Known about the structure:
The model has no long low-confidence stretch (mean pLDDT 96). With 265 residues, this protein is an alpha/beta fold. Strands 1-2-3-4-5-6-7-8 form an eight-stranded parallel sheet, with helices on both faces. The protein starts with a strand and ends in a 12-residue tail after the last helix. 43% of the residues are buried. Helix 3 (75-88) packs parallel to helix 4. It has nine helices and eight strands. Strand 5, helix 5 (136-145) and strand 6 form a beta-alpha-beta unit. Residues 9, 11, 39, 95, 204 line the site of zinc ion.
Amino acid sequence: xxxxxxxxxxxxxxxxxxxxxxxxxxxxxxxxxxxxxxxxxxxxxxxxxxxxxxxxxxxxxxxxxxxxxxxxxxxxxxxxxxxxxxxxxxxxxxxxxxxxxxxxxxxxxxxxxxxxxxxxxxxxxxxxxxxxxxxxxxxxxxxxxxxxxxxxxxxxxxxxxxxxxxxxxxxxxxxxxxxxxxxxxxxxxxxxxxxxxxxxxxxxxxxxxxxxxxxxxxxxxxxxxxxxxxxxxxxxxxxxxxxxxxxxxxxxxxxxxxxxxxxxx
Length: 265
Ligand SMILES: [Zn+2]
C-alpha cells in the first residue's frame, strides 16, 4: 500500500503559496502527503482558509486566534469564531495558545483569549491545535481546569514529564523540520524517548524548514524528510512510522468529519 501522511500543521493559506499552491499540492499527493491541516491565525483569514479547504481535496481547516497576533484580535473576533464554528464546523480550534518567549506580548490577554477559545472547543466538542512557547506548565494547568477533548501541541519541545501530562489530557505532540537538524539534540532525544502513540508529524510551512532545504521557504512537500529523520532517530521502519503517525493524527483530529458542503447549512 502506498504511504499516506498527514501534515498536521501547515499555513498553506498564506499568500507566500499563492503562486505555486497547485503544484505543491500535486507534489504532496505524489509523495504521499494526502492530508494537510491548515490552522487559522486571525479572523481576517478564516473565510479564505475555509474556501481553500472546500476547493482542494485533502485540506482540513482549523480556525482560531493565534497568541502572537494578540494586538490584532478583538472581542468581536471571539464572537465571530463562535458563529463560524456553528456554520462551518472546522476540524479543530487553532492555532491558539500561549507565547511567553516573545517578551512584549501581554500574557494576561493571551491567557484570557486562550481560555475563551478552549471554552468554545469544549462546548463544540472540538480538538484544539496549540502553539506553546516557554509556557508548557501554564498551559497544562489551564488544560486541567478547562477540559477539552484533546488535540495537538504543535512544534513540541517541552520535557518528557510535560509530554506525559499532555498525553494524559488527550494530546498528541507535533514534530517537524527541526528533527532533521543534527544540532537539535535535545529535541531528537525527546522524539526517540516518547511513546509512538504521542507523535504526529507537521511541517509548520512556510516556517521552520528541513535541513535539506535550509534557508528556503518550507513546504508540506518536505514532510517525508521529517518522517525519515524520525525513523532514523528512533531506529524504526519508515512505513511503520508513517502508518502510526497518520493513525494518531486521524484519531485525534477525526479528519473524516470535515464536510465542506454539509458544513455550510
Ligand atoms: Zn502555526
